[in-house]
Write a structure and sequence with these properties.
The protein has helices spanning 3-16, 57-66, 94-103, 125-128, and strands spanning 27-35, 40-44, 73-82, 110-116, 119-124. By secondary structure, the protein is an alpha+beta fold. The protein has a five-stranded mixed β-sheet with strand order 2-1-3-4-5, with helices on both faces. Helix 3 links the parallel strand 3 and strand 4 (110-116). Bound molecules: tetrahydrodeoxyuridine (THU).
């Protein structure tokens, strides 16, 4: 991916942190999901007083896109930190990796973890979710 494209995703993911609803953890997470259609779907984490209904930023972005009929994706960028200040990378939780596995080719889908415009690393889904269970396993 081009650096300018990566930095655009980082900027949008960081902006999304301002929408995080996090009265319990105060840990803001923003995501920017790039569709193969070129559109970017933002997402934030949304917590809940009962805790388990909490939705991560990555899944919010995926579910927004999928609920609009979009199922093909190139990359996702995740930015997070306590009180909305990214101090290190915020890697996606196992549930979010599994949601990525449902819609994305593990060999190609890129996960960008960032703490700033010049502070990022890229990973392939296959490396963050080795031997994942996907739709083909049900064939
Ligand atoms: N969180 C995310 O949004 N994405 C992840 O992949 C990891 C965790 C959120 C959930 C919760 O609101 C807060 O971070 C602390 O766990």
């Amino acid at each position: 991916m081009e650096k300018s494209q990566i930095q655009k995703l980082i900027r949008i993911a960081a902006e999304q942190m301002s929408y995080s609803y996090v009265p319990y953890s105060h840990f803001h997470v923003g995501a920017a999901l790039l569709g193969k259609n070129g559109k970017i779907y933002g997402g934030c984490n949304i917590e809940n007083a009962a805790y388990t209904p909490t939705n991560c930023a990555e899944r919010t972005a995926f579910f927004k896109a999928v609920s609009e009929g979009v199922r093909d994706f190139t990359a996702i960028c995740v930015v997070g930190g306590k009180d909305g200040v990214p101090r290190s990378y915020a890697p996606p939780c196992g549930v979010c990796r599994q949601v990525m596995r449902e819609f994305c080719d593990p060999e190609k889908f890129v996960i960008i973890l960032a703490a700033g415009p010049e502070d990022y690393e890229t990973f392939l889904l296959k490396d963050l979710l080795p031997m994942g269970f996907g739709p083909e396993n049900l064939d």
